[in-house]
Write a structure and sequence with these properties.
This protein is mainly alpha-helical. The protein has 5 helices and no strands. It has one domain. Helix 1 packs antiparallel against helix 2 and helix 1 packs antiparallel against helix 5. The model has no long low-confidence stretch (mean pLDDT 81).
Length: 141
Amino acid sequence: MPGRTRTLVAIDLGVGTSLLLGWLTIPLAVPHLVLGCVFAVLVGVHLATRPRRLAALIRASGRPRRPAGTRKRFAAVVILGLAAIGATVTGFVQWAGIAPGPANGLHSMTSGVLFGFAIRHVWVRRPILLQRLRRRRTPAA
């Protein structure tokens, strides 16, 4: 499993780094656009490398009654996903010049929500992330 762990860590770090660098390059149109595209692709890869978790999330969406903690986690993941989609779509709309005024405000809002929920996602998942990082540093026996 060390190869899989290394891949997951690389993807996790890529998603976080591209989000942070995208935020830092807001004044620079081309780097911001490129990093936004990289972020969108890496989020897709991030989800694709976790098929069981994604399947469980989809199954849970069909259940009418869930425990309170599960409902909160599910809602947070849904908001995070919608914010990622919203930030990507409004970024492309803004870049294409289709609706410059409204798209700018929506892009800022969805990006802010995305950033906040991404921080929450990392904070909630930090034990797993730290475990992966420790496992990665451990030399093979």
